[in-house]
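Quick start: read one record
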Amino acid sequence: MLKILRFICGSLVWVLTSTASFGQSAFSFVALGDLPYGAPEKSGPSYRALIDRINQIGPAFSVHVGDIKSGSSLCSDEEFAQQKKHFQQFKGAVVYTPGDNEWTDCHRVNNGSFDPLERLDTIRQMFFTSGLSLGSKPITVLNQSSVHPQHGKFIENMRWIHDKVLFVTLHVVGSNNNLESRDKAAVHEFFERDSANVAWIRASFEQAIQMQADAMVVSFQADVLEGKTAWEDFPGWSGFRQSIGGTLLPLAQRWGKPVLVVHGDSHQFKIDQPFTLEKKPLRNVTRLIVPGASDVRAVMVNVKRGSFSFELIEPSR
């Protein structure tokens, strides 16, 4: 028997079910992130074995929430090309949203002393094609760059629909979302991207209302609570104050239907409901933190009538 965590109508229960339960769900997708970490000769085999296992399962699609390399490895074109090859080893579709290790932290000496904004431009050029995901069988996606002319560079913000569930990606990264005073260009980049994220969140909830979606899944890289239990309001220094605290959470509360937030960054698998507004917990907002780094596993998410169940996926042996 397999033990599966399931959120139903906002409450957490434990469910014992057999492997056959996958066929009883409306559909399943895989969430993963913060992989692969480490030298290619050490991290590559286990990561490719995990991809093999995902291919065996055959989900509707996979979502990688960023950090395709560790924070202490080179941000080189060769590294990026290798990770794109990994994405193409998925037999199905994989949607990718960038992490901080791919660009914001690339100024570090052990990353190659790159210009972070140049690396961001490279990521956009190498990994994103208007209208399509990655993977051997890409799915059709809507890019913010194609519908919001004022945010034309943000091809990485995407959304798509599967069985009345709206999926959304946001470019929200660790390292406080690149809100740093070390560089005026970094500050400008943050506010421009933050504005784009806010617009994308608002447009996504408008679409969810219009299409009468059963649920929404929002994926990004950053652990926006940064190890804290919860904040009633995000502090002024937080790079997540406006996009998450001021936009995503209030709109989720107003909408009232199930919202699953998927992110990585902290590398420890967790399912909880940590968000609050007006001193009340948001019971319709569930958070999934994917494993990562040395924990080379992914998470199968089963979706059925607005409820979510979760199972950890091990690499093939």
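The radius of gyration is 18 Å.
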